[in-house]
Amino acid sequence: xxxxxxxxxxxxxxxxxxxxxxxxxxxxxxxxxxxxxxxxxxxxxxxxxxxxxxxxxxxxxxxxxxxxxxxxxxxxxxxxxxxxxxxxxxxxxxxxxxxxxxxxxxxxxxxxxxxxxxxxxxxxxxxxxxxxxxxxxxxxxxxxxxxxxxxxxxxxxxxxxxxxxxxxxxxxxxxxxxxxxxxxxxxxxxxxxxxxxxxxxxxxxxxxxxxxxxxxxxxxxxxxxxxxxxxxxxxxxxxxxxxxxxxxxxxxxxxxxxxxxxxxxxxxxxxxxxxxxxxxxxx
Length: 283
Prior knowledge:
Number of strands: 5
Strand order of the largest sheet: 1-2-3-4-5
Shape: globular
Structural class: alpha/beta
């Protein structure tokens, strides 16, 4: 039998071509560089272009420590370390400051209700940042005190929505910066918390357990990335334990491969003992 092959119609040819292109793009996306959870692979990721062009940025410390706002003067500490200087290092200047200004029995959590942020106008901040020429701004999402400037389910009543300002400070600033400026929004995040009982238990056991990481720090990191999509993450408070305790390489592989900011996010180099100036995004 003789079979006649009919020429393709224009519409049929266009459909086949479109299907072929889509198939190619899908295949390309599947073989797109997938970063593995090891430093050799993660360190090979190039910095997103926007960061190389950003010559000036601002990182803000803001939390409960802003209430006492006292670091003992230039010869002593930093005000964001006040709780640890008082109860951890037991610095005389910190003890004296509490005795002179607050009643007996006053505790650090008692500062929280006074952290009202009543003058905080995120639109005004965004305008100021834009006028400064900054190309990125990173707000403290959580410092070593454990207070979160968003409503984290792992920080019950020790966050800016359920206590103090009673507002989502991270979300409010992120919204204003993105709606009013061309600035890239970022977040500072402390891996550890000075007086968190789960962290202290892991630490006492030589970091052979990861209860704190699994129940606090990793859930919080995923919260801020998924909820606020920061294009810069400034990790800190990592120095006591190896990166394997913090699950740093696993987190960064997810961040670079599957997170909502996988193509634009930049990170620093504080992801575990010995990582500084060796591993991460920028040093």
